[in-house]
Sequence to fold (482 residues):
Amino acid sequence: MKLIYTLLIIIFSASFVPAQEEWSEPIQIAPDTMSCFHPDMVIDNSGTLHCVWSHKIDNNFFKIYYSKSQDKGETWTEPEDISLNTHLWMAEPHLAVDSENNLYLTYDYNAGDPNNMHILFKKFNGTNWSEPDTISVNMPGSMHNKLIIDNNNRIYVFWNRWETSYYRYFEYNICNEIYCVFDNDSNYHTMYKAAIDNENNIYCIGFFHYYGQSHYEDRVIYFTYNYIDNIWSNILILNDNRSWQGSDIDIDNSQLPHVAWGEYTSVFPDPTHDATFYTYFNGSDWMPNEIVVEDPSYQTIAIDQYNHPHIVNREKTDSGKQLIHYYKYQNNWEGTIIDESYSFFDSKLIFKDSILFFIYKKLPVPGGKGKIMLSKYIVPVSIPENAIKYYYSNNLNQNYPNPFNTETTIHFYLNKSGYTTLKILDLQGRLVTTLINEYKEKGEYAVIWNGKDKNRKEVKNGLYLYRLQVDKRSMTRSLQLY
Fold:
Protein backbone atom coordinates (compact mmCIF):
# COMPACT_ATOMS: atom_id res chain seq x y z
CA MET A 1 0.00 0.00 0.00
CA LYS A 2 2.83 2.36 0.91
CA LEU A 3 4.53 1.61 -2.42
CA ILE A 4 1.32 2.37 -4.35
CA TYR A 5 0.93 5.66 -2.48
CA THR A 6 4.52 6.60 -3.26
CA LEU A 7 4.06 5.79 -6.94
CA LEU A 8 0.91 7.93 -7.06
CA ILE A 9 2.81 10.84 -5.55
CA ILE A 10 5.57 10.45 -8.16
CA ILE A 11 3.07 10.27 -11.02
CA PHE A 12 1.16 13.28 -9.74
CA SER A 13 4.34 15.32 -9.32
CA ALA A 14 5.63 14.43 -12.77
CA SER A 15 2.37 15.49 -14.42
CA PHE A 16 1.80 18.59 -12.35
CA VAL A 17 5.14 20.35 -11.84
CA PRO A 18 6.08 21.33 -15.42
CA ALA A 19 2.63 22.75 -16.16
CA GLN A 20 2.20 24.82 -13.05
CA GLU A 21 5.74 25.63 -11.95
CA GLU A 22 7.54 27.03 -14.97
CA TRP A 23 7.14 29.46 -17.81
CA SER A 24 8.64 28.29 -21.06
CA GLU A 25 12.00 29.59 -22.17
CA PRO A 26 11.39 32.81 -24.17
CA ILE A 27 11.05 32.31 -27.93
CA GLN A 28 12.39 35.04 -30.22
CA ILE A 29 9.93 35.95 -32.99
CA ALA A 30 11.78 38.54 -35.10
CA PRO A 31 15.39 38.01 -36.23
CA ASP A 32 18.37 39.76 -34.60
CA THR A 33 18.76 42.02 -37.65
CA MET A 34 15.55 43.86 -36.74
CA SER A 35 15.14 46.67 -34.21
CA CYS A 36 11.61 46.06 -32.96
CA PHE A 37 8.95 48.15 -31.21
CA HIS A 38 5.27 47.84 -30.17
CA PRO A 39 4.50 44.14 -30.69
CA ASP A 40 0.90 42.95 -30.76
CA MET A 41 -0.55 39.45 -31.12
CA VAL A 42 -3.90 37.73 -31.62
CA ILE A 43 -4.91 34.07 -31.77
CA ASP A 44 -7.49 32.99 -34.35
CA ASN A 45 -10.14 30.28 -34.09
CA SER A 46 -7.82 27.62 -35.50
CA GLY A 47 -5.16 28.35 -32.86
CA THR A 48 -2.78 30.19 -35.19
CA LEU A 49 -0.80 33.00 -33.55
CA HIS A 50 -0.47 36.24 -35.52
CA CYS A 51 2.08 38.90 -34.55
CA VAL A 52 2.87 42.41 -35.81
CA TRP A 53 5.48 44.96 -34.78
CA SER A 54 7.21 48.09 -36.05
CA HIS A 55 10.82 47.83 -37.25
CA LYS A 56 13.16 50.82 -37.11
CA ILE A 57 15.14 51.37 -40.31
CA ASP A 58 16.18 54.98 -39.64
CA ASN A 59 15.33 57.72 -37.16
CA ASN A 60 12.09 58.68 -38.92
CA PHE A 61 11.58 55.54 -40.99
CA PHE A 62 9.72 52.55 -39.47
CA LYS A 63 7.90 49.72 -41.24
CA ILE A 64 5.22 47.31 -39.97
CA TYR A 65 6.06 43.59 -40.15
CA TYR A 66 3.92 40.47 -39.72
CA SER A 67 4.63 36.84 -38.83
CA LYS A 68 2.51 33.87 -37.77
CA SER A 69 2.92 30.56 -35.95
CA GLN A 70 0.84 27.41 -36.37
CA ASP A 71 2.50 25.45 -33.55
CA LYS A 72 1.59 27.62 -30.54
CA GLY A 73 4.51 29.97 -31.01
CA GLU A 74 7.36 27.47 -31.29
CA THR A 75 8.27 28.47 -34.86
CA TRP A 76 7.40 31.57 -36.88
CA THR A 77 7.18 32.44 -40.56
CA GLU A 78 9.64 34.79 -42.21
CA PRO A 79 8.63 38.39 -41.32
CA GLU A 80 6.61 40.11 -44.03
CA ASP A 81 6.62 43.85 -44.72
CA ILE A 82 2.91 44.74 -44.68
CA SER A 83 3.06 48.54 -44.54
CA LEU A 84 5.17 48.76 -47.73
CA ASN A 85 6.05 52.38 -47.02
CA THR A 86 9.24 53.82 -48.46
CA HIS A 87 9.59 56.61 -45.90
CA LEU A 88 7.95 58.02 -42.73
CA TRP A 89 7.35 56.38 -39.38
CA MET A 90 4.64 53.72 -38.99
CA ALA A 91 3.99 52.97 -35.29
CA GLU A 92 1.87 51.06 -32.75
CA PRO A 93 0.38 48.30 -34.95
CA HIS A 94 -2.64 46.45 -33.55
CA LEU A 95 -4.40 43.29 -34.72
CA ALA A 96 -7.90 41.84 -34.41
CA VAL A 97 -9.37 38.65 -35.89
CA ASP A 98 -13.00 37.89 -36.79
CA SER A 99 -14.98 34.64 -36.64
CA GLU A 100 -13.84 33.71 -40.16
CA ASN A 101 -10.16 34.25 -39.28
CA ASN A 102 -9.82 37.44 -41.31
CA LEU A 103 -7.19 39.73 -39.81
CA TYR A 104 -7.52 43.48 -39.33
CA LEU A 105 -4.63 45.87 -38.75
CA THR A 106 -4.47 49.47 -37.58
CA TYR A 107 -1.39 51.62 -37.07
CA ASP A 108 -0.27 55.21 -36.58
CA TYR A 109 0.87 56.83 -39.82
CA ASN A 110 3.66 59.49 -39.82
CA ALA A 111 4.48 59.16 -36.11
CA GLY A 112 7.52 61.39 -36.56
CA ASP A 113 5.23 64.39 -37.09
CA PRO A 114 2.61 64.33 -34.27
CA ASN A 115 0.60 67.23 -35.72
CA ASN A 116 0.06 65.34 -38.97
CA MET A 117 -0.40 61.76 -37.77
CA HIS A 118 -3.33 59.63 -38.96
CA ILE A 119 -4.74 56.17 -38.26
CA LEU A 120 -4.57 53.64 -41.10
CA PHE A 121 -6.54 50.41 -41.50
CA LYS A 122 -5.85 47.22 -43.52
CA LYS A 123 -7.53 43.81 -43.88
CA PHE A 124 -5.94 40.39 -44.54
CA ASN A 125 -8.17 37.70 -46.06
CA GLY A 126 -5.67 34.88 -45.63
CA THR A 127 -3.96 35.59 -48.94
CA ASN A 128 -3.56 39.33 -49.47
CA TRP A 129 -3.41 42.51 -47.42
CA SER A 130 -5.67 45.29 -48.66
CA GLU A 131 -4.50 48.79 -49.48
CA PRO A 132 -4.52 51.06 -46.40
CA ASP A 133 -7.58 53.18 -45.65
CA THR A 134 -7.42 56.35 -43.56
CA ILE A 135 -9.72 56.05 -40.55
CA SER A 136 -9.11 59.46 -38.97
CA VAL A 137 -10.35 61.42 -41.98
CA ASN A 138 -9.79 65.20 -41.69
CA MET A 139 -8.34 64.72 -38.19
CA PRO A 140 -4.56 65.29 -38.33
CA GLY A 141 -2.91 64.72 -34.98
CA SER A 142 -4.69 61.37 -34.43
CA MET A 143 -2.54 58.83 -32.60
CA HIS A 144 -2.39 55.83 -30.22
CA ASN A 145 -4.84 53.63 -32.13
CA LYS A 146 -6.68 50.70 -30.51
CA LEU A 147 -8.50 47.90 -32.36
CA ILE A 148 -11.16 45.50 -31.03
CA ILE A 149 -13.82 43.29 -32.59
CA ASP A 150 -17.08 41.99 -31.11
CA ASN A 151 -18.88 38.66 -31.46
CA ASN A 152 -20.89 39.93 -34.43
CA ASN A 153 -17.69 40.92 -36.26
CA ARG A 154 -18.27 44.62 -35.71
CA ILE A 155 -14.79 46.20 -35.81
CA TYR A 156 -14.04 49.21 -33.59
CA VAL A 157 -11.07 51.51 -34.17
CA PHE A 158 -10.25 53.96 -31.36
CA TRP A 159 -7.67 56.73 -31.25
CA ASN A 160 -6.73 59.83 -29.29
CA ARG A 161 -6.61 63.41 -30.54
CA TRP A 162 -6.09 66.56 -28.54
CA GLU A 163 -6.68 64.85 -25.22
CA THR A 164 -9.87 62.97 -26.01
CA SER A 165 -10.89 59.65 -27.60
CA TYR A 166 -12.64 59.05 -30.91
CA TYR A 167 -13.75 55.94 -32.74
CA ARG A 168 -15.36 54.48 -35.84
CA TYR A 169 -16.71 51.01 -36.45
CA PHE A 170 -17.07 48.74 -39.46
CA GLU A 171 -20.23 46.71 -39.88
CA TYR A 172 -21.24 44.75 -42.99
CA ASN A 173 -18.22 46.27 -44.79
CA ILE A 174 -19.50 49.79 -44.11
CA CYS A 175 -17.38 52.23 -42.11
CA ASN A 176 -19.56 54.48 -39.94
CA GLU A 177 -18.97 58.10 -39.08
CA ILE A 178 -16.51 59.37 -36.47
CA TYR A 179 -17.80 59.46 -32.89
CA CYS A 180 -16.39 61.06 -29.75
CA VAL A 181 -16.47 58.84 -26.66
CA PHE A 182 -16.77 61.80 -24.25
CA ASP A 183 -18.67 64.36 -26.27
CA ASN A 184 -19.34 67.77 -24.68
CA ASP A 185 -16.72 67.30 -21.97
CA SER A 186 -13.68 69.59 -21.87
CA ASN A 187 -11.70 67.37 -19.47
CA TYR A 188 -8.99 64.98 -20.67
CA HIS A 189 -10.05 61.38 -21.27
CA THR A 190 -8.29 58.61 -23.11
CA MET A 191 -9.22 54.97 -23.73
CA TYR A 192 -6.19 52.75 -23.05
CA LYS A 193 -7.41 49.12 -23.15
CA ALA A 194 -10.77 47.44 -23.80
CA ALA A 195 -12.51 44.07 -23.55
CA ILE A 196 -15.84 42.81 -24.94
CA ASP A 197 -18.35 40.50 -23.23
CA ASN A 198 -20.67 37.89 -24.76
CA GLU A 199 -23.38 40.50 -25.34
CA ASN A 200 -20.97 42.79 -27.22
CA ASN A 201 -20.77 45.40 -24.48
CA ILE A 202 -17.36 47.10 -24.27
CA TYR A 203 -15.48 47.51 -20.99
CA CYS A 204 -12.70 50.11 -21.03
CA ILE A 205 -9.91 51.35 -18.84
CA GLY A 206 -8.19 54.64 -19.49
CA PHE A 207 -6.77 57.83 -17.99
CA PHE A 208 -8.36 61.09 -16.88
CA HIS A 209 -7.41 64.53 -15.60
CA TYR A 210 -9.39 67.74 -15.30
CA TYR A 211 -9.08 70.65 -17.68
CA GLY A 212 -6.06 72.74 -16.73
CA GLN A 213 -4.21 69.83 -15.15
CA SER A 214 -1.28 67.95 -16.68
CA HIS A 215 -0.66 64.25 -17.33
CA TYR A 216 1.09 64.14 -13.97
CA GLU A 217 -2.42 64.31 -12.47
CA ASP A 218 -3.78 61.35 -14.48
CA ARG A 219 -6.08 58.91 -12.68
CA VAL A 220 -7.24 55.49 -13.90
CA ILE A 221 -10.85 55.46 -15.12
CA TYR A 222 -13.34 52.74 -16.01
CA PHE A 223 -16.26 53.17 -18.41
CA THR A 224 -18.48 51.02 -20.60
CA TYR A 225 -20.37 50.97 -23.88
CA ASN A 226 -23.87 49.46 -23.95
CA TYR A 227 -24.30 47.70 -27.29
CA ILE A 228 -28.12 47.58 -27.25
CA ASP A 229 -28.67 51.19 -26.18
CA ASN A 230 -25.66 52.53 -28.09
CA ILE A 231 -24.55 54.74 -25.20
CA TRP A 232 -21.40 55.28 -23.17
CA SER A 233 -21.48 55.30 -19.38
CA ASN A 234 -20.11 57.98 -17.11
CA ILE A 235 -16.55 57.46 -15.97
CA LEU A 236 -15.62 55.84 -12.67
CA ILE A 237 -12.27 56.94 -11.18
CA LEU A 238 -10.67 53.81 -9.71
CA ASN A 239 -7.73 55.26 -7.80
CA ASP A 240 -6.73 58.15 -5.55
CA ASN A 241 -3.18 58.81 -6.71
CA ARG A 242 -1.69 59.61 -10.07
CA SER A 243 -1.01 56.81 -12.53
CA TRP A 244 1.55 56.47 -15.26
CA GLN A 245 2.71 53.51 -17.32
CA GLY A 246 0.52 50.46 -17.51
CA SER A 247 -3.10 49.45 -17.12
CA ASP A 248 -5.15 46.57 -18.48
CA ILE A 249 -8.60 44.96 -18.32
CA ASP A 250 -10.04 41.49 -18.96
CA ILE A 251 -13.43 39.78 -18.63
CA ASP A 252 -14.01 36.57 -16.65
CA ASN A 253 -16.35 33.67 -17.44
CA SER A 254 -19.17 35.42 -15.58
CA GLN A 255 -18.72 38.41 -17.91
CA LEU A 256 -17.38 40.61 -15.12
CA PRO A 257 -14.38 42.95 -15.51
CA HIS A 258 -11.00 42.65 -13.74
CA VAL A 259 -8.54 45.56 -13.83
CA ALA A 260 -4.83 46.04 -13.09
CA TRP A 261 -2.88 49.29 -13.19
CA GLY A 262 0.20 51.10 -11.95
CA GLU A 263 -0.15 53.91 -9.42
CA TYR A 264 2.27 56.16 -7.57
CA THR A 265 1.89 55.78 -3.83
CA SER A 266 4.12 58.72 -2.80
CA VAL A 267 4.10 62.46 -3.37
CA PHE A 268 5.44 63.74 -6.69
CA PRO A 269 8.20 64.40 -7.56
CA ASP A 270 10.31 62.88 -4.77
CA PRO A 271 10.19 60.13 -3.85
CA THR A 272 8.41 58.35 -6.69
CA HIS A 273 7.28 55.04 -5.27
CA ASP A 274 4.66 53.00 -7.08
CA ALA A 275 2.67 49.78 -6.95
CA THR A 276 0.57 47.45 -9.08
CA PHE A 277 -3.09 47.59 -8.06
CA TYR A 278 -5.88 45.14 -8.83
CA THR A 279 -9.65 45.15 -8.43
CA TYR A 280 -12.69 43.49 -9.97
CA PHE A 281 -16.46 43.96 -10.18
CA ASN A 282 -18.39 41.23 -8.35
CA GLY A 283 -21.71 41.90 -10.09
CA SER A 284 -22.94 44.63 -7.75
CA ASP A 285 -19.88 46.46 -6.39
CA TRP A 286 -16.22 47.07 -7.11
CA MET A 287 -14.04 45.27 -4.61
CA PRO A 288 -11.47 47.26 -2.58
CA ASN A 289 -8.25 47.98 -4.45
CA GLU A 290 -5.44 45.53 -3.66
CA ILE A 291 -1.70 46.11 -3.89
CA VAL A 292 -0.19 43.20 -5.82
CA VAL A 293 3.43 44.29 -5.59
CA GLU A 294 5.44 47.46 -5.07
CA ASP A 295 7.92 48.85 -7.60
CA PRO A 296 6.30 47.86 -10.97
CA SER A 297 5.38 49.20 -14.42
CA TYR A 298 3.79 47.96 -17.67
CA GLN A 299 0.96 46.01 -16.05
CA THR A 300 -1.04 43.48 -18.08
CA ILE A 301 -3.78 41.07 -16.94
CA ALA A 302 -5.56 37.92 -18.14
CA ILE A 303 -8.26 35.79 -16.48
CA ASP A 304 -8.04 31.98 -16.72
CA GLN A 305 -10.73 29.31 -16.96
CA TYR A 306 -11.24 29.36 -13.18
CA ASN A 307 -11.75 33.16 -13.08
CA HIS A 308 -8.32 33.52 -11.45
CA PRO A 309 -6.43 36.71 -12.35
CA HIS A 310 -2.89 36.55 -13.71
CA ILE A 311 -0.87 39.78 -13.73
CA VAL A 312 2.51 40.38 -15.32
CA ASN A 313 4.56 43.54 -14.77
CA ARG A 314 8.11 44.86 -15.06
CA GLU A 315 10.21 45.44 -11.94
CA LYS A 316 13.60 46.99 -11.25
CA THR A 317 16.53 44.88 -10.03
CA ASP A 318 20.06 45.73 -8.97
CA SER A 319 21.28 44.82 -12.48
CA GLY A 320 18.40 45.75 -14.83
CA LYS A 321 14.74 44.71 -15.06
CA GLN A 322 12.73 41.53 -14.70
CA LEU A 323 9.28 40.41 -15.83
CA ILE A 324 7.21 38.89 -13.02
CA HIS A 325 4.01 36.85 -13.27
CA TYR A 326 1.74 37.17 -10.21
CA TYR A 327 -0.88 34.67 -9.10
CA LYS A 328 -3.04 35.04 -6.00
CA TYR A 329 -3.53 32.30 -3.42
CA GLN A 330 -5.20 32.83 -0.03
CA ASN A 331 -4.80 36.64 -0.13
CA ASN A 332 -1.11 36.45 -1.05
CA TRP A 333 0.25 37.51 -4.42
CA GLU A 334 3.32 35.48 -5.32
CA GLY A 335 5.47 36.19 -8.36
CA THR A 336 7.40 34.01 -10.80
CA ILE A 337 10.24 35.43 -12.90
CA ILE A 338 9.62 35.09 -16.64
CA ASP A 339 12.69 36.86 -17.98
CA GLU A 340 15.54 39.14 -16.88
CA SER A 341 17.44 41.67 -18.99
CA TYR A 342 18.47 45.30 -19.24
CA SER A 343 14.84 46.35 -19.83
CA PHE A 344 11.42 45.37 -21.25
CA PHE A 345 8.55 47.25 -22.92
CA ASP A 346 5.23 46.88 -24.75
CA SER A 347 3.86 43.65 -23.27
CA LYS A 348 0.58 41.78 -23.76
CA LEU A 349 -0.88 38.78 -21.90
CA ILE A 350 -3.44 36.48 -23.58
CA PHE A 351 -5.24 33.45 -22.15
CA LYS A 352 -6.36 30.88 -24.72
CA ASP A 353 -7.04 27.12 -24.48
CA SER A 354 -5.55 26.75 -20.97
CA ILE A 355 -2.35 28.59 -21.95
CA LEU A 356 -1.10 32.03 -21.00
CA PHE A 357 0.76 33.61 -23.92
CA PHE A 358 2.97 36.57 -23.02
CA ILE A 359 4.51 38.70 -25.77
CA TYR A 360 6.92 41.55 -25.08
CA LYS A 361 9.79 43.68 -26.31
CA LYS A 362 13.16 42.84 -24.76
CA LEU A 363 16.08 45.27 -24.76
CA PRO A 364 19.26 43.29 -23.94
CA VAL A 365 21.66 46.26 -23.69
CA PRO A 366 21.33 50.06 -23.56
CA GLY A 367 20.86 51.46 -27.03
CA GLY A 368 20.63 47.97 -28.54
CA LYS A 369 18.08 46.46 -30.89
CA GLY A 370 14.75 45.51 -29.36
CA LYS A 371 13.75 41.85 -29.67
CA ILE A 372 10.19 40.46 -29.82
CA MET A 373 9.83 37.56 -27.40
CA LEU A 374 7.09 35.06 -26.49
CA SER A 375 6.82 32.96 -23.35
CA LYS A 376 4.07 30.46 -22.42
CA TYR A 377 2.59 29.10 -19.21
CA ILE A 378 0.22 26.14 -19.07
CA VAL A 379 -2.64 26.47 -16.59
CA PRO A 380 -3.55 22.88 -15.60
CA VAL A 381 -7.05 21.66 -16.46
CA SER A 382 -7.49 20.66 -12.83
CA ILE A 383 -5.38 21.78 -9.87
CA PRO A 384 -5.88 19.89 -6.60
CA GLU A 385 -6.11 22.21 -3.61
CA ASN A 386 -3.07 20.74 -1.86
CA ALA A 387 -1.02 21.19 -5.03
CA ILE A 388 -1.94 24.87 -5.30
CA LYS A 389 -0.96 25.34 -1.67
CA TYR A 390 2.36 23.63 -2.27
CA TYR A 391 3.37 25.97 -5.06
CA TYR A 392 1.71 29.22 -4.02
CA SER A 393 2.08 29.74 -0.30
CA ASN A 394 5.45 31.36 0.29
CA ASN A 395 4.74 34.39 2.44
CA LEU A 396 6.66 37.63 2.97
CA ASN A 397 5.24 39.60 5.90
CA GLN A 398 5.38 43.32 6.48
CA ASN A 399 8.48 44.22 8.48
CA TYR A 400 8.04 45.22 12.12
CA PRO A 401 8.31 47.86 13.33
CA ASN A 402 7.53 49.96 10.29
CA PRO A 403 8.49 52.78 10.07
CA PHE A 404 11.64 52.06 12.09
CA ASN A 405 14.66 53.96 13.32
CA THR A 406 17.48 51.62 14.39
CA GLU A 407 16.47 48.14 13.27
CA THR A 408 13.50 46.19 11.94
CA THR A 409 12.63 42.49 11.60
CA ILE A 410 11.51 40.85 8.35
CA HIS A 411 9.55 37.63 8.78
CA PHE A 412 8.93 35.19 5.93
CA TYR A 413 7.80 31.62 5.42
CA LEU A 414 9.03 29.16 2.79
CA ASN A 415 6.63 26.39 1.90
CA LYS A 416 9.40 24.54 0.08
CA SER A 417 13.17 24.68 0.11
CA GLY A 418 15.21 26.53 -2.50
CA TYR A 419 18.01 28.97 -3.16
CA THR A 420 16.92 32.10 -1.32
CA THR A 421 17.92 35.75 -1.48
CA LEU A 422 16.58 38.62 0.60
CA LYS A 423 17.76 42.01 -0.61
CA ILE A 424 17.22 45.62 0.36
CA LEU A 425 16.87 47.90 -2.68
CA ASP A 426 16.36 51.63 -3.09
CA LEU A 427 13.44 52.98 -5.12
CA GLN A 428 15.57 52.98 -8.28
CA GLY A 429 16.16 49.23 -7.87
CA ARG A 430 19.80 49.64 -6.81
CA LEU A 431 21.15 47.16 -4.31
CA VAL A 432 21.55 48.52 -0.77
CA THR A 433 22.49 45.29 0.97
CA THR A 434 21.90 41.54 0.85
CA LEU A 435 20.51 39.94 4.01
CA ILE A 436 20.28 36.33 2.74
CA ASN A 437 22.04 34.65 -0.16
CA GLU A 438 21.98 30.88 0.37
CA TYR A 439 19.97 27.68 0.10
CA LYS A 440 17.17 27.57 2.70
CA GLU A 441 14.95 24.72 3.86
CA LYS A 442 11.19 24.95 4.20
CA GLY A 443 10.18 26.86 7.33
CA GLU A 444 9.77 30.19 9.09
CA TYR A 445 12.55 32.79 9.21
CA ALA A 446 13.16 36.18 10.80
CA VAL A 447 15.93 38.53 9.64
CA ILE A 448 16.97 41.84 11.17
CA TRP A 449 18.02 44.85 9.09
CA ASN A 450 19.89 47.57 10.96
CA GLY A 451 19.49 50.31 8.35
CA LYS A 452 23.02 49.91 6.97
CA ASP A 453 24.23 49.24 3.45
CA LYS A 454 26.58 46.54 2.18
CA ASN A 455 29.55 48.65 3.33
CA ARG A 456 28.07 48.85 6.85
CA LYS A 457 27.32 52.55 6.46
CA GLU A 458 24.00 53.98 7.65
CA VAL A 459 21.63 54.78 4.78
CA LYS A 460 19.52 57.91 4.44
CA ASN A 461 16.01 58.04 5.83
CA GLY A 462 13.25 57.17 3.37
CA LEU A 463 11.43 54.36 1.61
CA TYR A 464 13.22 51.14 0.61
CA LEU A 465 12.18 47.85 -0.94
CA TYR A 466 12.84 44.40 0.43
CA ARG A 467 12.63 41.52 -2.04
CA LEU A 468 12.47 37.81 -1.24
CA GLN A 469 13.39 35.47 -4.10
CA VAL A 470 13.26 31.67 -3.82
CA ASP A 471 14.53 30.12 -7.06
CA LYS A 472 12.24 31.88 -9.59
CA ARG A 473 9.60 32.92 -7.03
CA SER A 474 9.66 36.59 -6.03
CA MET A 475 7.79 38.82 -3.58
CA THR A 476 8.47 42.54 -2.90
CA ARG A 477 7.32 44.95 -0.19
CA SER A 478 8.40 48.38 1.06
CA LEU A 479 9.67 49.62 4.41
CA GLN A 480 10.43 53.05 5.80
CA LEU A 481 13.45 54.24 7.74
CA TYR A 482 13.10 57.52 9.65
Summary: Confidence is low (pLDDT under 50) at residues 1-20, 386-392. Residues 2-21 form the longest helix (20 residues). The CA atoms of residues 94 and 445 lie 47 Å apart. The domain at 11-391 is CATH 2.120.10.10 (Neuraminidase).
